[in-house]
Amino acid sequence: MERVVSGIRPTGFLHLGNYFGALRNFIKMQEENECFFFIADYHSLTTHPTPKDLQSNVRNILIEYIAAGLDPEKATIYVQSDVPQVCELSLLLSMNVYIGELQRVASFKEKVRRQPDNVNAGLLTYPVLMAADILLHRADKVPVGKDQEQHLEMTRDFAQRFNRIYKNEYFKLPMAYNFGGELVKIPGLDGSTKMSKSDNENSCIYLSDAPEVIRKKVMKAVSDSGPTEPGQPKTQAVENLFQLMKAVSAPDTLQYFEEQYQNCAIRYGDMKKQLAADMIAFVQPVYERILELREQDDYIRKVAREGAERARESAAKTVREVREIIGIKSF
Ligand code: TYM
Question: Does 16 sit in the ligand 1 pocket, CB within 6 Å?
Answer without folding.
Answer: no
